[in-house]
């Protein structure tokens, strides 16, 4: 049975920050924290969004709030225990 045999793990590449591998959690946190803070005050060019093609708006059929509640109530028992409920 092939599925119970030892399997090779996929090759992954560690995250690097300033030339150092982030192998420990504190190193990863430092890399993410510093990266966010360095980008937080930089200006962004929103014109790159102009290259994204627009799509027409879709029309929705109207429905009542109760119709939506009735449709999702049957799925509440299929999710994880509370508080992961839809209604």
Report the average pLDDT across residues.
81
Query: What class do helices, strands and sheet pairing give?
Result: mainly alpha
Given as residue ranges, the uncertain stretches (5+ residues, pLDDT < 50) are none
Record field, number of beta strands? 2
Net shape:
extended
Order of helices and strands: EEHH
Percent strand equals: under 5%
Order of strands, main sheet, comes to: 1-2
The radius of gyration over CA amounts to: 24 Å
Give the biggest beta sheet.
2 strands, antiparallel
Distance between the termini: 44 Å
Please estimate the helix content.
25-40%
Q: Total number of helical segments? A: 2
Q: What this model shows, in words?
A:
By secondary structure, the chain is mainly alpha-helical. Helix content is 29%, strand content 5%. The chain has helices at residues 25-40, 65-73, and strands at 16-17, 20-21. It has a two-stranded antiparallel sheet. The longest helix is centred in the middle third of the chain and has 16 residues, at 25-40. It starts with 15 loop residues before the first strand and ends in a 14-residue tail after the last helix. The relative contact order is 0.06.
């Amino acid at each position: 049975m092939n599925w119970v045999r030892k399997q090779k793990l996929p090759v992954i590449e560690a995250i690097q920050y300033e030339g150092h591998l982030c192998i420990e959690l504190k190193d990863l946190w430092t890399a993410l924290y510093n990266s966010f803070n360095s980008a937080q005050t930089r200006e962004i060019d929103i014109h790159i969004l102009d290259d994204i093609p627009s799509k027409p708006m879709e029309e929705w059929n109207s429905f009542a709030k109760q119709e939506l509640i009735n449709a999702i109530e049957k799925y509440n028992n299929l999710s994880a225990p509370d508080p992961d409920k839809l209604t």
